[in-house]
Amino acid sequence: MTVLLVVAGAVLGAPLRYLTDLLIQSRHRSLFPWGTFTVNVLGSFILGVVAGAVSAGAPGWLATWVGTGFCGALTTFSTFGFETVRLLESGALRLVALNVTLSVLVGLTACAAGWALATAW
Fold first, then answer.
1. Which of 8, 15, 47, 95 is least surrounded by CB atoms within 10 angstroms?
2. What pTM was computed for the model?
């Protein structure tokens, strides 16, 4: 049952990541990876909501389905790493610093905001 929950979440998260990245990147000419940044922040927020909800009494399978399956497929650390190295190789050191700093700080803030929202109810 656990594997099916993960697969069901991933079936939704993976195409959403791909389509979101395409949509966001098509609207920017910047080297900054706005698509990956967007899905990672969105996934961090959703994961915070789910973790907070489960800690407040929501069923544990929700963490498996949405947290592991959906958010795991929606977000991408490997692409974040690849795009950061690509920026580094192109000499865009300020964008490297911006990408790393914003991704970590905004991602953690989004997760904390999601947790706070879910546990406030």
1. 15
2. 0.94
